[in-house]
Damage-control phosphatase ARMT1-like metal-binding domain-containing protein (Streptomyces humidus), 450 residues
Amino acid sequence: MTRMRRITAPPVILGNEPGSFPHSVLAERHPAIIRQVRDAFPYGPEAHRALDALAESCAEGVIEPLPDGAHDRHSWQDWGLDAWVGRSWFDVPWLWSESYFYRRLLDAVGYFGPGPWAGIDPFRPFKLAELDAAETDRELTALDSLADRPVGERARALLHGSLWGNRADLGFRLSDGEAEGRAAVPGLVADDSEALWTLPALATAGAGADTGAGGRTRAGAGSGAGTSDRADEYTKADAKADAGQDEKRDRGVSVGASSGTSLCLVADNAGRELIPDLLLAAHLLDHGQCDRVVLHVKPYPYYVSDATTADVVDALRKLTGAGGAAAEQGRRLWAAMADGVLTVRAHPFSAAPLPYARMPDDLRAEFAAAALTIVKGDLNYRRLVGDSRWDPTTPFADVTAYFPGPVVALRTLKSDVITGLDAATEAALAAAEGQRWRTGGTHALIQLRE
Ligand SMILES: O=P(O)(O)OC[C@H]1O[C@](O)(CO)[C@@H](O)[C@@H]1O
């Protein structure tokens, strides 16, 4: 068990420092998103006027209240709206400002109705284009070559697929045209994956993972260490696990379904991130000691590409229509939803402008009941640790001590917030890249708090 202590967070990040990454998101990314959404739909004059007003407000105006009768007015009041009304978008917590931007954008295009545009996702054309892209098909075909590999090797590959799938973030790519072409740096800045595979709920799913000394590895910047280099090695544990799964299947026993254990997967982006997330969930259900996965998605379109229930449906359709191993997994996941083994949850707090430390009791109870919560992506990481100027060496276990159960973060680094680095790793990153490693989307981490 990791030792942890409760600590006080440093100041939250605001967007009011010209030249900073948060400032550029508010000053450049948000206006660009408004333009792209406007161009993607044949909106009527009312939506155009509302988009104009939002663009003007973001550039020069102040935060305004929600319209009268907004269905979620009380929630936003609980989340601090009254305190921020009348303030510049740049002078309030950045996380709050960004979240409220997406809420207002949906208002502008009539998403919340009443009217014919109710429920029309303004980001759907971008999400679908990505789902239909040749890269997505290539990734699905690659699954075939994994099908007959040992269970531990598959587990590691799927974990890394889910982790690096987090680069498929449309908000990030829309405003940073070079992001996609930038090569990922192979070494993780923190890597607790081997400890992850020793958790009871996952142990058989990751059979063959090397626990090593203390069950954890740490990677230096760009070193490549910490990622598994044992991919071709079919270990005794792999063989034992595979034999066990085969034997269970021969007896007609549902593999992995015996423990009454659930996992929560807090999804991030749709499309090319959600597909590997679903494949990881399928693997854990099939080979782990968990018999239920709860997939937490956003209750409405958010941060451009964040996954909603509709995106889960699109991803499952993509899988089932793909052929080969992808289709097989798609059908199993489809059936898992019918059986209640895989459920989708769209809790209002999933799109709240607050850190998870302030989650409501019902959500806390859900995470508390899970054997493990997997938290995907940059934004969820910011919400998990708190969107503050942490010293990068602040232990991850300390900043997540409040979380009601074991939690693992899978994230590519796309914003300034970072915790849990060792001093040597931070120094190596800074020496090699200045501060670019924090926001470029080229580095990643796997951090576990048991
Ligand atoms: O899709 P992700 O990984 O949550 O990333 C969200 C992105 O949006 C941001 O919030 C900036 O808008 C950054 O945190 C990150 O670059």
Remarks:
- Residues 21-40 form the longest helix (20 residues).
- The longest strand covers residues 407-412.
